[in-house]
Amino acid sequence: MNHPLTPYERSLIARITLGHVTREYPNSVALRLDSVADLAPPRTLHPVFYGSYDWHSCVHGYWLLSRLLGCFGDDLPEAEAIVGLFDEQLTAANVAVELDYFRRPGRGGFERPYGWAWLLKLSTELALQTQPRAVRWSQNLQPLVEWVVARFSAYLPRLSHPVRSGVHSNTAFAMLLALEFAETRQMRDFAEQLRASALDFYGRDRNYQAWEPGGEDFLSPGLQEALLMQRVLDAEDFREWFDAFLPDLALGRPATLLQPVHSRDRTDGRLAHLDGLNLSRAWCLRQLGGSLAAIDPRRSLLELAAQRHLDAGRGHLQDDYMGEHWLASFLVLAVEAGQGRGVNAA
What we know:
Layout: H1 7-21, H2 42-45, H3 55-72, H4 79-89, H5 92-103, H6 114-128, H7 132-155, H8 171-184, H9 188-202, H10 221-232, H11 235-245, H12 273-290, H13 297-313, H14 321-324, H15 327-337
């Protein structure tokens, strides 16, 4: 299939990801302790998603591997290793332990909403594949997916305002991936709840000031919000909303949304986020630009900004493990968005 990743890049990304999804240490464990019995190694706590430094990065590492397998199948040199990993890890017994962790008292907000969203995206990708192996993996994962959907659905009515951060707590990013899941899986009630919440949270936003980026951001609050609204609204309503949200975009303002950023220390996990910001912005900018008419001057402006961000981010996948364990997922989002894929296309 025609794909923006070269064969070398596909294999490199697959090898990087295979190298960290089962790497147990170093590990950042988010754990509420109710007793000494809660202390255990990551592999014991999370028999599937124990690698990649933290739980959510391991989940989207599995998404990335499943995406590569779905795109290239057995033509990918690493396909056999990916299938073997999924067969070994994505078992019903292992997922049951993962689910038990979430169900214990005091852990209802574990990985909310970022890890939840990536789990749903992994489920979306597996559901799009028809091979028996993918069907089996999807079925094994389903109990945890159902728990996340139920928790997500219960969480939204309790959220009085969206979280407009540039890190894991960002509401728009999570809702975007969740809506893709709901539409793909034809979960109409969940999809409608997400659309209604998005309109409630963001529908009245105007004249975005773009006091971003923050020094530890890997998401653009403004661009993530716009990408969510692009999916929620029909084309005409979105253009009206987008015109009001960024009224001076044709003049290159806010400039802070269009200029790539630079990390001064890629060994620092939080400062390394800025490499991810370049990639996640490239994803958003490409998707948003593609929604505009060819004669709209904002389209070429967004496409140029997207390419600059992509060029700034894609060369740092292996600079340090603080970026290596997660950046490739956002690179794939960005490059696929340039071909009409990404979150808005199956």
